[in-house]
Design brief:
The protein is of the alpha+beta class and 456 residues long. Helices cover 42% and strands 19% of the residues.
Length: 456
């Protein structure tokens, strides 16, 4: 809320400045400078001016308000149409992927006349609003939560977010660095329509660089699934802020998911049962193999989350929150997982597994003496610079994600993969046709030769 007011004020001041600046510029007067949002597809920037001589060149600069290790902005040359006195350019997001709702986009125009004199319009800001719905907002100190379906859903989930933030801060030593926005859609379908590139099973997604979380929460499962998922995704976001790295540092998946599961609160019945089963059947996964991706589906995925919860629970219970915070900070410096653990706790991943197994009463496991080292940089959990970083959560109960940590990048890979498959298919088809034609020609040739031989 605070940010919305600040944003409005900033926009008002820049508008005022634009009018003043426009009036002072010799030759050209800006009469309209606007950005029209068609969420989530496009933003159309347009500038109308009056003047005897149109500008020789025009350039649009724009960027989005998000965390980035380097300053990112786009500069687009825009053709000048001397007849209409209007400049326009459309940012079509199907090419780049779209920022989440609530993101501020700034822009400015630079016009150059034939003599090389330039003028730049004052920077203006527009907020990407998902106006398909009538949003309501409830706020806590550092969290704004927006929702539109189910009267009790907003306050209920805000309480869940505040409780998770307190747990992160007081019991885990992980503090929030920037204000967070949660957009609670009425169901996962509505949510998926707000994101151009998203898996069709996703029920929630965290945009860590934008400090924004989107979750589809039908009111009838808000109390259980909604509350746990809000806590889980908030933990990913806050841990992501706390452990931000511009040097390629990352966290192993067991730590990332273990922290998020721990932030949900006391383990649910399913987690407790999975841990009991794994203990009875001695079926825990070697911890080192949970550094990277988790199993995609079913029981194995659930077991991986439960085990990760148990390991983080052990680390916190035995060594405390300050050590854990130091581990996250050390991993952010780009240390390998083994080196970071050794520096903070004095054991590597295998040593941790041995201690943890002993603490929960599992039989000792023989660990190969020379494990392949896994460099932190090899498995980017939170990529340092990218477009929207997504941590999707499936739309179905229970809480864990099917694909826990992955970067969506700009989604272009997804766009081109079907195209590549189609091209391959067409190529194969053409090859087959050519082969059949060649065979037919060869047969015909042989038959004619035979006929000619017979005639002779
Ligand atoms: Zn997760």
């Amino acid at each position: 809320m605070k940010r919305t007011v600040a944003g409005l004020l900033a926009t008002f001041i820049t508008c005022l400045a634009a009018v003043v600046a426009g009036a002072q510029t010799p030759g050209i007067t800006i009469t309209d400078n606007d950005a029209l949002v068609d969420f989530p597809n496009a933003v159309t920037f347009s500038l109308t001016y009056e003047g005897e001589v149109p500008p020789a060149d025009a350039e649009l600069s724009f960027g989005v308000d998000k965390f980035s290790c380097v300053e990112l902005q786009s500069q687009i040359p825009v053709a000048v149409d001397p007849v209409t006195n209007t400049l326009a350019w459309q940012w079509v997001m199907i090419r780049s992927g779209n920022p989440p709702p609530g993101t501020d986009v700034w822009w400015e125009w630079t016009l150059t006349d034939v003599d090389g004199n330039t003028m730049t319009t004052p920077r203006q800001t527009v907020t990407l609003t998902d106006d398909r719905f009538e949003w309501q907002t409830v706020s806590a100190e550092s969290i704004d939560l927006h929702w539109y379906r189910g009267d009790d859903v907003g306050p209920l989930l805000l309480d869940a977010a505040v409780a998770a933030q307190a747990r992160l801060e007081n019991e885990m030593g992980i503090t929030l660095q920037d204000d967070v926005d949660l957009w609670i859609y009425g169901d996962s379908g509505d949510m998926r329509n707000a994101v151009l590139y998203i898996q069709d099973w996703a029920g929630g997604v965290a945009f860590s660089e934008y400090n924004t979380i989107l979750i589809g929460v039908p009111p009838n499962i808000a109390q259980d699934w909604g509350v746990r998922t809000v806590a889980h995704e908030l933990a990913h976001l806050v841990t992501g802020q706390f452990g931000r790295s511009c040097v390629g540092g990352s966290r192993p998946t067991w730590l990332e998911e273990g922290l998020a599961s721990y932030a949900e609160g006391e383990p649910d019945e399913e987690t407790t049962l999975e841990l009991q089963n794994a203990l009875e059947n001695d079926s825990f996964t070697p911890l080192r193999s949970l550094n990277g991706s988790f199993p995609a589906h079913g029981g194995a995925a659930g077991a991986a989350y439960s085990q990760s919860y148990s390991v983080v629970d052990y680390l916190l219970d035995t060594y405390g929150q300050a050590q854990l915070a130091t581990l996250i900070a050390t991993l952010a410096t780009g240390e390998s997982y083994d080196d970071a653990l050794t520096a903070v706790y004095g054991f590597n991943i295998d040593g941790l597994e041995t201690e943890w197994r002993s603490a929960i009463g599992a039989a000792p496991r023989t660990i190969p003496p020379t494990p392949t080292p896994v460099a932190a940089i090899a498995i980017p959990t939170i990529p340092p610079i990218s477009a929207a970083q997504s941590v999707p959560t499936p739309s179905v109960y229970p809480t864990y994600e099917i694909a826990p940590i992955q970067s969506t990048g700009d989604g272009l890979g997804d766009l081109y993969r079907p195209l590549a498959q189609l091209t391959l298919l067409v190529c194969c088809g053409v090859m087959l046709l050519l082969l059949v034609a060649a065979l037919w020609l060869a047969l015909r040739h042989a038959r004619r030769k035979q006929e000619r031989a017979n005639e002779q």
